[in-house]
Design goal:
Blueprint (H helix, E strand, L loop, with lengths): L1 H38 L7 H15 L7 H9 L9 H14 L7 H19 L3 H20 L2 H10 L11 H18 L17 H5 L1 H27 L6 H17 L9 H7 L8 H14 L7 H15 L7 H17 L2 H12 L4 H14 L19
Helix pairs in contact: 1-4, 1-5, 1-6, 1-8, 2-4, 2-11, 4-5, 5-6, 6-7, 6-8, 7-8, 7-16, 10-13, 10-14, 10-15, 10-17, 11-13, 12-14, 13-14, 14-15, 15-16, 15-17, 16-17
Length: 398
């Protein structure tokens, strides 16, 4: 036992340091490209060419890594998980280019892929066994998620829960938590990278009536998650019918840029964090969640790079904001429940989502957050943004 702890204290700390540093560099770069894009919105006209460049680089030099997070899941399910080191720089620059030219995408996929790629290189270098290699991969996922969102508890649990197997290997629990907290400390304390602050200033009293209102809200969040997933997968299948891969993001870029130019929907490009913050403060147009879902599905489905989680946060927060007109609960509470509820439904991680909500919004709203995540998880059915996710017993749901 002592040997086990000493080994993983050292190895998981090393992975956490790499993950936290990679996320810090990524977040700094992402903030810079976002500022440049917002100051020069004409860059949106270059989105088709940017898409072609991304598609060509992956087609010509990135064979085998285009699956992204699904490749990580396949590695976790395989006997010997090893991810190519080139996955890290490819997804980093692909995501930065996507955001610079106005694509609608997130960031967690980039952080997780970079961290997981770096983590597995340790196992390859030291010729570790397959089980230890999978634990390294879990540590990489935990570190990347924890550092990019500033939620170490959720990051650790997410790395274990998203596998969606009935049994969790107890030997992976301590390394996952240690890597997550190390990555969080390195990103926040060493690099000084802050994270967006959200607040739920008023939590409704815990009554049966108030808790009962979480049922229809959770159903709405679950259906929104299902819509997000189906839209993304459907458009991905449609674009994959184009035989030459670089043409897929080129066409997607034309459609995204055209839609944004015609409608003036600049609110929905990039991460959309300012709009998420607004969702906790003031009523917004009811269609915000649909607009973000559509543009994100078009961006990522055509082959641009980034993540789905922050767009899921956007979709959930704005949907919760819209539901406040019909459900007699505080606006910020519904926005927070939607923020994590849609995420839970689309990733099948209700426990990690609940913990994330409590880390971001405070413990007072925990019961509401947990109930929203559970109901959304159930009513999202077989939906998952990760096509390779093993859904286990959830396959029996409608």
């Amino acid at each position: 036992m002592l040997k086990y702890f000493l080994f993983w204290i050292a190895i998981a700390a090393c992975i956490g340091t790499l993950s936290g540093s990679a996320s810090a560099i990524f977040l700094l770069s992402l903030d810079w490209v976002g500022q440049v894009r917002d100051a020069h919105l004409w860059l949106l006209g270059g989105l088709p060419l940017a898409g072609f460049a991304i598609g060509y680089c992956y087609h010509r030099y990135g064979s085998g890594i285009e699956k992204g997070n699904n490749l990580i899941l396949e590695g976790l399910y395989s006997p010997q998980p090893v991810l190519p080191l080139r996955m890290a720089p490819f997804v980093l620059f692909g995501t930065l280019i996507t955001h610079l030219f106005g694509g609608s995408a997130g960031r967690e996929g980039t952080a997780v892929q970079m961290s997981a790629s770096l983590a597995t290189q340790l196992g390859k270098r030291w010729s570790l066994d397959a089980q230890t290699g999978r634990t390294l991969l879990i540590c990489g996922v935990a570190g990347g998620f924890a550092s990019v969102f500033g939620t170490p508890l959720a990051g650790a649990v997410f790395s274990l829960e998203w596998l969606f197997r009935r049994k969790i290997d107890p030997n992976t629990i301590f390394p996952a938590f240690w890597a997550a907290f190390t990555a969080y400390w390195v990103c926040d304390w060493v690099w000084g990278i802050g994270h967006t602050a959200y607040a739920i200033p008023e939590v409704a009293p815990l009554t049966l009536i108030n808790l009962g209102w979480m049922i229809p809200a959770g159903i709405a969040f679950g259906l929104a998650a299902r819509l997000f997933v189906e839209a993304g997968h459907g458009l991905s299948r449609l674009f994959n019918s184009i035989s030459y891969p670089p043409l897929r993001p080129l066409l997607g870029g034309v459609l995204v840029a055209g839609i944004v130019y015609i409608t003036g929907a600049y609110t929905y490009i990039g991460l959309g964090i300012p709009r998420i913050v607004e969702a906790f403060e003031t009523p917004l147009p009811w269609y915000d969640f649909l607009a973000k879902t559509g543009l994100t599905a078009l961006t990522l489905g055509s082959g641009f790079k980034g993540g789905e989680v922050t767009p899921l946060f956007f979709t959930g927060a704005t949907l919760g904001n819209a539901l406040a007109a019909y459900i007699p609960l505080p606006l910020a509470l519904l926005a927070g429940c939607g923020f994590v509820g849609v995420f839970a439904g689309a990733t099948n991680t209700p426990l990690a989502s609940t913990l994330m909500g409590m880390e971001l919004f405070g413990l007072e709203a925990g019961i509401y957050l947990g109930l929203a995540c559970l109901v959304a998880f159930i009513f999202s059915g077989r939906a998952s943004i990760y096509a390779s996710q093993d859904l286990g017993w959830k396959k029996s749901l409608p």
